[in-house]
Amino acid sequence: MDEIARRAGVSKTTVYRALSGQGRIGEDTRRRVLDIAEEAGYRPNRLARGLRRSRTGLIGVVVPGIEGQFYARVLEGIEKALQDVDHRVLLTVSRGEQEYELVESLLDMQVDGLIVASESDSPDFYERLLRRRVPIVFIDREVPGLHADLVATDHFAGGVLLAEHLRDKGYRKPAFLSVTDRPRPIGSIEDRWCGFRSVFRNACLLHHPFMGSVKRLLREGGDAAPAETFSELCLLALRGALEPLATFPYDCVFAQYDHFALAMIHLLQAHGIRVPQDVGVVGFDDHDFTEYTEPPLTTIRQPLREIGLQAAQRLLRRLEEPDLPAAALRLPPRLVARRSSDPLAAMEQP
Amino acid sequence: MDEIARRAGVSKTTVYRALSGQGRIGEDTRRRVLDIAEEAGYRPNRLARGLRRSRTGLIGVVVPGIEGQFYARVLEGIEKALQDVDHRVLLTVSRGEQEYELVESLLDMQVDGLIVASESDSPDFYERLLRRRVPIVFIDREVPGLHADLVATDHFAGGVLLAEHLRDKGYRKPAFLSVTDRPRPIGSIEDRWCGFRSVFRNACLLHHPFMGSVKRLLREGGDAAPAETFSELCLLALRGALEPLATFPYDCVFAQYDHFALAMIHLLQAHGIRVPQDVGVVGFDDHDFTEYTEPPLTTIRQPLREIGLQAAQRLLRRLEEPDLPAAALRLPPRLVARRSSDPLAAMEQP
DNA sequence: CTGAAAGCGCTAACAA
DNA sequence: TTGTTAGCGCTTTCAG
Q1: Domains of chain A, first to last
Q2: Is the pTM of this model over 0.70?
Q3: In this structure, is the dihedral angle defined by the CA atoms of residues B256, B248, B240 and B292, taken in order, positive or negative?
Q4: DSSP B60-100
Q5: A5: which nucleotide lies closest, measuring CA to C1'?
Q6: In chain C, which nucleotides are within 7 Å of a protein Cβ?
Q7: B291, A289: Cβ pair inside 8 Å?
Q8: What is the pLDDT of residue A149?
Q9: Is the minimum distance from the CB of B48 to strand C below 7 Å?
Q10: Which residues of B touch A76 (CB under 8 A)?
Q11: What is the pLDDT of residues A147-194, one digit of tens each?
């Protein structure tokens, strides 16, 4: 900027005024400065601007992982919404370990706000931040005991949708597979349960830490993996599920995750039970492979991109109005009932 | 920092020395300053530090999209490698449009370096940056005509692996589906072709812009989508592929992408051709749904996370040694031959 | 309409 | 061992 000022024979301030379009300035000087800046290929240093204005245009994002499609899609939505208003995403992946440290480091970098998919079990850390008026929007999971902005799927509605679908298909004795390995069940799965039970009063709840088994197998596995693929891993984790279920005359299963649903189907088939004739199985979207499974799998599609978009927008809004009361936004999911007819048939016949 | 200096009764510089652990300082003052800083919850402003040192610890990343698993996984590797050395990822998604602007904006934010999955067809823009000695590592695709660091899959090796696999399975007359919609064929697919042909001298090349069809359908589709799912879309795009192929007595097909491979399988089956008995089909990893398809699909797994890790490490190295000569690192892919036996059988029998 | 000066928070060089 | 000073590049305020 100094060089431009010198070359144009004006002060830094004038250059700034020309470039920013703010403040009174003579048309001729403005043109001259702009031309010189253009020619010199001048680009403002956003870091310096951030330091001065204490507004960086950086938004910190913390997610547990992005290898699965779940957070990748949410992230896509976040980035899109922010790019549209010329903000940038500072991305960190917590991998179940570093959440708080990462949040701190993002704040050190002077992000304007945070979007966090937290795995925290206690509200203390975030309560402190909120008291310091750090703008935060949580996504996907709520932090237990914390009153803060949240954007997530409406899991209750998802439970209702799946229950209604099963009921419409003629099933009557549903089993609900709770899969959590946490001390307190995950809120989202509890919500699904409530929704599910509001339709099926007689639903049977099978509580078992399948998810924990998968994680343990993954950890222990290391190189000597107990299974080649993740789907096989899920199969291993679910192996014990049939005996406890057998005490209940179920005719359909809500398996919480698509991977589990598929494993459950394989498991049932291995025991000579036909799907969906004898027993129906439904999942809940954590992946988009459901297009490809055999037999077709009915599932709930979560509005992932939309969650990201809404979270970003909420955060931007909060930057303008820091006193906005905290609110939870629960977005409706969509039932994806895979027709069992061959999609190809429909396409090739006509 | 000023406040801590005041409270400790020393100069800012001393506080800095205590906190940074650099320069000589009395043990007692050091302790005192550290205690006060701790108590005051002091955290250094990395933005200011960046401005002063002109080293921000920010790495700009540009990818075309992250909804598919491809770049999400690469990104995971990048983030991991950078997090390990306390650097942060500034993520942007170009969505086939804004690549150059995004790169500029990242530079405005004073990133230390860039990792770019470019869709550019011309080297001019990046050549200018490289002349300005901006550290850049490209991933996945090379920019035509540009001599720069690149980390990517060894597509030639991938082509060889698939060809050898097909040969070992007894196939003799392979068809290679080139799917590009670009003026110049994408380098990676050319490499696959070269590798493939080094094994099968008689391979037949079917050149047709299937990929372009898919994109067009996606664009035109809008709400009135011509197909419910992406897999159906691929099927539509491939419909015309069988006639040109029919002129060649092929007994197997290399379909470039898993989605196409699967669509091809369905297409063949719809025409009464059995897979893999009559015709074998192989893909090339762009997704991890191959675990779930029916019939099983043999494919090449690209070392995506590793690409990210290596790219980040290369960039970090280049930050230290700006004069490193540009180099291409091509990482070996892995053949994933899906056994057609039921994985469950293997697990449940014993 | 234009310019001078101060300062965001940190760091590096130099002086005491 | 400690302190003083200057400056990264931009923005704001106040003065001309």
Answers
A1: 2-44 (1.10.260.40), 53-153+303-331 (3.40.50.2300), 155-302+336-347 (3.40.50.2300)
A2: yes
A3: negative
A4: EEEES-SSSHHHHHHHHHHHHHHHHTT-EEEEEE-TTT-HH
A5: C3
A6: 1-5, 7-13
A7: yes
A8: 98
A9: yes
A10: 65-67, 93
A11: 999 999 999 999 999 999 999 999 999 999 987 766 566 788 999 999
